[in-house]
Amino acid sequence: MPDYTVKQGDCLSSIAAKYGLFWEKIWNHPKNARLKEQRKDPNILYPGDVVFVPEKEVKEESAGTEQKHRFKLKGVPAKLKLRILEDEKPRANVNYTLQIDGRIYNGTTDADGKIEQTIPPNAQRGVLILEGDTPIILQLGQLDPIDTITGVQARLLNLNFDCGEVNGRETPQLEQALKEFQEKNGLQVTGKIDEATRNKLLEVHGS
């Protein structure tokens, strides 16, 4: 099977679903060892990354004829994890509606303001509606690695630091957002993307 070149919006779960494989089989394949070392997180790939996709393996099972048999398809579904904060405090026990690619899920945030929902592995767009709030648009599979400007911008926006558009450019608005993030998290306030800022962004954002 040919290598797959990652496009914007791809994640390992969506690539695996495209080829009828489990994401672990792709991620743990020896030919993807270099990519695994580079990206660390299977949920965060960068457009242009090359993923080796192994062939499917055929498994045979013996069973009697003229009888009914039940087979269970094993696999790990994709899971969307969110944490909702307001003024740095968790929004606990709030009813929500989550729309993912036309499917609707209803639930309540937990005591820590968290939402965990199993979703289709190839989902790309969602809308989160908290009770009494304006809808929040979710772009799934769009988070770039932290060593890219777009990855930094996306995480800042997710944490409510207004850095403008996710466009990969170093702008005055991005510099101001970085200063605010650095000051809030006890870092040296430079407005620059340095290693300490990237590490803290990963820690606070969660990925």
Structure description:
- The chain has helices at residues 12-19, 23-27, 33-39, 149-158, 172-184, 195-205; strands at 4-5, 50-51, 78-83, 85-86, 89-90, 95-100, 103-108, 114-119, 125-130, 136-139.
- By secondary structure, the chain is α+β, with helices and mostly antiparallel strands.
- The chain folds into three domains: 4-51, Membrane-bound Lytic Murein Transglycosylase D, Chain A; 78-139; 149-205, Orthogonal Bundle (Muramoyl-pentapeptide Carboxypeptidase, domain 1), CATH 1.10.101.
Secondary structure elements and their pairing?
Blueprint (H helix, E strand, L loop, with lengths): L3 E2 L6 H8 L3 H5 L5 H7 L10 E2 L26 E6 L1 E2 L2 E2 L4 E6 L2 E6 L5 E6 L5 E6 L5 E4 L9 H10 L13 H13 L10 H11 L2
Antiparallel strand pairs: 1-2, 3-8, 4-5, 6-7, 6-9, 9-10
Helix pairs in contact: 4-6
Features:
207 residues, alpha+beta, Membrane-bound Lytic Murein Transglycosylase D, Chain A, Muramoyl-pentapeptide Carboxypeptidase, domain 1, 3 domains, 4-stranded antiparallel sheet, two-stranded antiparallel sheet
Fraction of residues in β-strands: 15-25%
Total number of beta strands:
10
The geometry reads as: globular
* Oligomer kind: single chain
Number of domains: 3
Give the strand order of the largest sheet, numbering strands 1, 2, ... along the chain: 7-6-9-10
First-to-last CA distance: 30 Å
- Helix/strand/pairing category: alpha+beta
Helix content percent band: 25-40%
Low-confidence stretches: none
- The ordered string of helix (H) and strand (E) elements is EHHHEEEEEEEEEHHH
The largest β sheet comes out as: 4 strands, antiparallel
How much is the average pLDDT? 85
**Rg computed from alpha carbons, rounded to a whole number of angstroms:** 20 Å
Helical segment count: 6
